[in-house]
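I am still getting used to backbone structure tokens and would like to learn alongside you. Please make up or recall a protein chain and show it to me in full. Would you write everything just below, so we can both look at the same thing?
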Amino acid sequence: MENILIGFVMIMAVVIVIGVFNEKLIKMPNDIALVVFSFLLSALLELIVLISGIPLSNRISNGIKEFHLDELLLNGVLCFMLFAGASKVHYGRFMKNFKAISLLALLTTVLSSFIYGGLFFLIN
């Protein structure tokens, strides 16, 4: 449990550093900056491991292999992402465009269901 907490604190520290760096210098949207800088950081770490020739320890590689991203996203991150998105919705503008939003949401849901259903049917 202690290792998970230390890992979480380290990840949060990196997110804060990326946020401050982005806010002061680059000024990209926060979500995009976090994805871009996280990709760059992971690529840099992978390059360091590749150049140095030091393999990742078995403990880290086993931890990565046993990590279940789908469970983390569905059970941990999704609720916070939905809350953050919903908290930025302006109720007046939403109600003003309620018919268009509902029609587009329903239409795209039905359309994507038929498209994916048809593709899966053709694959089998």
Notes: The chain has a mean pLDDT of 81.
